[in-house]
Structure prediction request, 1362 residues.
Amino acid sequence: MGQEDQELLIRGGSKHPSAEHLNNGDSGAASQSCINQGFGQAKNYGTLLPPSPPEDSGSGSGQLAENLTYAWHNMDIFGAVNQPGSGWRQLVNRTRGLFCNERHIPAPRKHLLKNVCGVAYPGELLAVMGSSGAGKTTLLNALAFRSPQGIQVSPSGMRLLNGQPVDAKEMQARCAYVQQDDLFIGSLTAREHLIFQAMVRMPRHLTYRQRVARVDQVIQELSLSKCQHTIIGVPGRVKGLSGGERKRLAFASEALTDPPLLICDEPTSGLDSFTAHSVVQVLKKLSQKGKTVILTIHQPSSELFELFDKILLMAEGRVAFLGTPSEAVDFFSYVGAQCPTNYNPADFYVQVLAVVPGREIESRDRIAKICDNFAISKVARDMEQLLATKNLEKPLEQPENGYTYKATWFMQFRAVLWRSWLSVLKEPLLVKVRLIQTTMVAILIGLIFLGQQLTQVGVMNINGAIFLFLTNMTFQNVFATINVFTSELPVFMREARSRLYRCDTYFLGKTIAELPLFLTVPLVFTAIAYPMIGLRAGVLHFFNCLALVTLVANVSTSFGYLISCASSSTSMALSVGPPVIIPFLLFGGFFLNSGSVPVYLKWLSYLSWFRYANEGLLINQWADVEPGEISCTSSNTTCPSSGKVILETLNFSAADLPLDYVGLAILIVSFRVLAYLALRLRARRKE
Amino acid sequence: MQESGGSSGQGGPSLCLEWKQLNYYVPDQEQSNYSFWNECRKKRELRILQDASGHMKTGDLIAILGGSGAGKTTLLAAISQRLRGNLTGDVVLNGMAMERHQMTRISSFLPQFEINVKTFTAYEHLYFMSHFKMHRRTTKAEKRQRVADLLLAVGLRDAAHTRIQQLSGGERKRLSLAEELITDPIFLFCDEPTTGLDSFSAYSVIKTLRHLCTRRRIAKHSLNQVYGEDSFETPSGESSASGSGSKSIEMEVVAESHESLLQTMRELPALGVLSNSPNGTHKKAAICSIHQPTSDIFELFTHIILMDGGRIVYQGRTEQAAKFFTDLGYELPLNCNPADFYLKTLADKEGKENAGAVLRAKYEHETDGLYSGSWLLARSYSGDYLKHVQNFKKIRWIYQVYLLMVRFMTEDLRNIRSGLIAFGFFMITAVTLSLMYSGIGGLTQRTVQDVGGSIFMLSNEMIFTFSYGVTYIFPAALPIIRREVGEGTYSLSAYYVALVLSFVPVAFFKGYVFLSVIYASIYYTRGFLLYLSMGFLMSLSAVAAVGYGVFLSSLFESDKMASECAAPFDLIFLIFGGTYMNVDTVPGLKYLSLFFYSNEALMYKFWIDIDNIDCPVNEDHPCIKTGVEVLQQGSYRNADYTYWLDCFSLVVVAVIFHIVSFGLVRRYIHRSGYY
Prediction:
C-alpha cells in the first residue's frame, strides 16, 4: 500500500526499492552523483514551457493588457530573531558600540528563504504550498515587494518581469496584492465599495460613467451581482457578506485596474470547502484570461488541487518542487514517496515535507534530500538558462505618467467625502444609536432637574445641570469619535499605504462628513433639556446656550480625533482618554473654584474647554438675574442674592463671554491640526 | 457495527451508548425591528435535528461529517446531553436512560474553542483541575502522578512548565484533551478538535483519540485513584482483584492488523501511559464533529456519520462508506480524499436530483428497524463503573472557594504587568488630582466648593475604576464559568464567593494608596484618624462598586453592551451623588445611589467637627460659617451615627447587588448550553 512508502520515507528507512538509491550511500557524495544522473539523463521532471497562449486575453477594458512572466532567482531572505531579553542586549550592544567605537555589532538573523527560484507564466495559476513555517508568506511578500519591517531581502536576489529587473514602484503599477485578512468599511454595500475603489484607483482621464461601467463588468466577472447591494458587514458584529463573497470583493477591488499580475496570500483560509472552491475558481478564471496568478494555500482539498496549473512546494525555506501536479506525482514517486490512492496529493506532499515534532532530524534530512534532488533537476537548470537568455525580451512599458496617486486631489477628496458620508448615514452606531441615546439622556436629565425655581437649592441644581451638559457632551462625543474613528483606521492605513489617497484628503473628507452629526446631537440635546430644566427664558439665551454646547461638542470631537490618531489601538485610546480629560474637567470651575487653581497650573486651564463653556453658560444664565429674583428667606446668610453674586463667588466675570467663544473656536482648530499631524506621522512611520 | 462481539470478550464488558429519535427545535428568528410584534407573532420553530438515531460502543472513534450548518455540533451536544432547550428523544447507556448529570459524569465534552486560564502553566492547570475533578480523598501524590501521566500521554511533557498562552494551538488542544481525561470518562465528545490546527497537530490530536479508543487495556492501577477509597465499600470481585495487584499489568493489543504498519511508524511518544487510567478495563469511545478532515486523519476514524440538513445520511464503518456510495453510482475517484468526496456529493445540489435524499433513503432502508425497536443492549449491565460513578464525591465547598481564590490570585500575579499598567493609570489620576487641588488653603467659602469637588472626585474615581474594571473582566469569564459549572467542576456559589473575596484586598489596597497621595496634598492638616476613616469608606465603596460592575455585566452579558447601556445608570447614580444637585430635590431616589453614601460619609467626616469658616469681605456674598451648615446646605445628614450608617448601607448595597447578579449569572448558565 501507499502508506508503506510514506512510512518508509518518513522513517528514512531503506526497504523500498525506489528509495534505495537515495539512501544507499551513507557517504553523501556518491548519492549526490547518483541522483544527478537520474535526473540529468533519464528523467525530466517539471517543464518550464509557458502554457499555450490564452485565447481571449483582450477581453478587459483595453488598458494594460500586457502579459507578464514573473521570474525570481536566488532569493535569500533574512529575518530578525526575536530573542528573549534581546531588547536589553541590543541596548547594551549599542552603547558598547558607541563607547568602544564598534559600530557594527550585527543583530542575529535567521535565514528564512534559501536561494529560492521560480517562475510564473501568464495564463497560469501557481499555488505555493507547504506546511506552516515553510516560508510561503515570506516568499509572497518578497515577490510583491511588501516585506514587513525587519525582513531583509539579500541584494543577490533577482526579480524579473519579462526578463527585466523590477523595483517596488514598477511592481506596484502592475501587481495586485490581496492580503490574507481583508479590511472593509462594514457599512457600505459591495457595489459602493467598488465604486469608491474605482474613483481612486483608476487612471485620471476616465469619466465617471466609464468607471461605473468597469465596476459593473468586474461585478459580472467575479459573480458578485447577487450580493452587490448587500452591506459588507463586520464579521461577528454586523451580518453582511459571507466569507467567500468578502474574498471575491477583495479580488474585485484589485481587478478594477486589470493588473496583469495577481498575488494572493491564503485566499481560502477560514472558508469552508465549497466557498474556497468558488474563490479559487474565480482566480482560475482570471488566470485563463491571461493574467499571472500566484497564491499561497495551506491545505487545499482534492478538488481545489485539481484547479492549479502549477504548484510550488516549499519546505524549510527551500523549493522542494515546481511544476505541474502530474509532474509532481512523478517526481515524488521518483524520490520514493508515492502518493497512495484515495489520498489527497496535496495533503500527502505537505505531510512529506513537514517537520514532525519529535523527529526533527529525520524530517530535516528527508526534506534536504528532496530539495537537493529538485535543485539539480532539469527544472532548475532550465531556469538558469531562462534567466541568461530572456533578458532581451520586450522591455516593459513605462507605467502611466508616473503620478504617485492615480486620482487628483479633488477627486480623492470627493471620493473620500462620499464614502465617509455614506458610512455615517449607514453606521447605526453613529446616527441611530447616538440620536436615541442623546434624546434619552436629555429627557432623563430634564426629568430629574424638572422645572427648577430660583431658590437657594435651585441655584445649586442649575449650576450642576449646566455642568452636566458639558460633561455629557464631552464624554459622549469623545468616546463615539474614538470608537468609530479607530475602527476605520486600519482601513485607512492600508489604503494610504497602497497610495489610494493622500492623508489630508482623507482627514478632511472624514471630518467634514461627520460634521452634520455633531451639529445635530447638541441641537437635539439642548432643545429637549433646556426648556425642561427651566433655564433662563428667552430666545437669545437659548441660542447662546445652543451655540456654546455645539462648540463644546465639536471641541470634544476634535479631541477624540486627536486621541485616536495619536494612540495605537482602540482600547489604548479608550483608556488614555479619561485620565487626560479629568484635568480639563477640574479646571471647569465646578469641582474646583477657578480662583483656587494653583498658579503653576494656570496656563493649563486655558486649554480647558470646560472652563470656557462653563463660564459662558453661567454668564448666559446668571448675568442678568437681578437682586430679588432669587427667593431667599431673609434670615439665611448662605443664599446668594443675585446672579452677579453667583458669578462672583465662582470667580467668573460677565465681560469674558466673547473670550469664551474665541477660546473654544481656537481649541477646535488646534486639536484638529494636531490630530492631522499625528495621523500623518503615523501613516509615514508604518511604511 | 458488528465487531463488538469479538472485543467485548477480551476487554471487560462493552458499553454502548444509544440515542433514539433525537429532535431539536429552536425558535425561528425572523428579522424585524419591532421586537414587540415578534413576541405577539406565533412562534415558528426550526428543526435543527431531525430524528437522529444511532449508537456508539466502546472502541469506536466516530467522525461526524457534514457541511456548514448540517447540525454536526448540535448532534454532538444532543447526544452528550449538553444541550439546553427543546430537545426530545432518548439517550441510553446499555439500556439505562441517562440523565444530564449522569452523562456529565461518564462523558467529557471538548469544546471547539479552548477556554483555559491562560496564565497557568500546563502542569499547574491540570493539577488545579485534578483537585476538582478527582475524588476528594485522592492524595496529592496520586494527583501529581495522574497529571504527569496525562501530560506524557498527550505529548506535553516538555511543555509542562510553559504558560498556556505560549503554547501552540495544537498543544492547547491536547491540553484540553488531557483536562477532560482527568476523570477518565468512557465517552469523549469533541467538537471540531482539528479546526485551526496545522496538519500535524491535527493528526496528533486525532491520533491520541484513536489510541484511547482502540487499544485494549487489560489491567491498570486501582480504581481508587480517581474514585477514592470509599467507593469500594461494596467490592465486586472483579474490581478488587484488579485493584489488589500493586503493579499494574499493562498490555496493549493492536486491534486490527492492517493499521499496524502505519501506526507503529507514526506512533506518538508515550501514548502507552494512558493505559494507566483507572478505568483501564474499558476502552473509550470518542465522537468528533469534524470539518474537512485531511486524508490521513480521515483514515483514523473507525466509523463515520454523514449529516445533511439535520438528518443522518449515513452511519457506519469508514471502509463500508465507499461501497455504500458506489452502490448508488457515486464512484470515488482516484487520488481523492474520501471525506472531500462524500461532502461534495452531499452538497452537489445541481447534479442529479439531490444526492443527499437518495443516500438517506438507502441508509434508512438498510437500518430499518435497528433503532426503532428495543435497545441494542438490554438492561443487563450494571457493572462497577456506574457504581463508582455514583459513589463519586467532589471536594467540599469551602475547599472549592479556597482553590478558586488561589487561582484568581495567581492569575492576577501572573498578569502583574497589565495590573501594574492599570495601577499606573490609577496613580496618575491620583497625582493629577492632588496637583490640581494643591492650591486649597485655609478654610474659606471657596474651600467649601473645592473640598466638595475633591471628595466627589475621590468617590467617583474609586467607584468607576472598580465597576468598569469588573465590567471588562467578567464577561470574558462567563463562558468559562458556564462550562465549568455546567460540567459540575465546581459550584457557582463557590466561584462567586471566591471572586468577590479576591477583590476585597485589592479594593482596600488601592483605596488607601489612592487616598494617601491625595491626603498628603490636600487634607494633611487634618490628622491621621481622618485618613483611616476616609480610606476605610473608600475601600468599602470600591467593594460595592465591584458588585455594581458584576451586576451590570451579568445583566448585559457582553462588555460592549454593558459599557454602552451602563451610561444611563451611571448618570442617575452620579446625579444623585449630591454634587450636581441637592439630593433632596427628588426625595427618596438618593438611597439608590452608591455615590450618595460614599459622598455623604466623606463629607460628614470632613466637615462635622469644623466650626469656623471665614466669610468673604463683601457682605452681599453668601457665607457658610460652620461645617454643619455645609452639610445642611447639601442636605446631608449630620447625626452622630451618619458615618457608620453609610458604611452599613454600602455593605447592604453591595450584598444586594451581588445577590441579584448571582441570580442573573445562574439564569444565564441554566439558560444556554455550554458546548
Summary: Confidence is low (pLDDT under 50) at residues 1-11, 30-40, 216-280 of chain B.
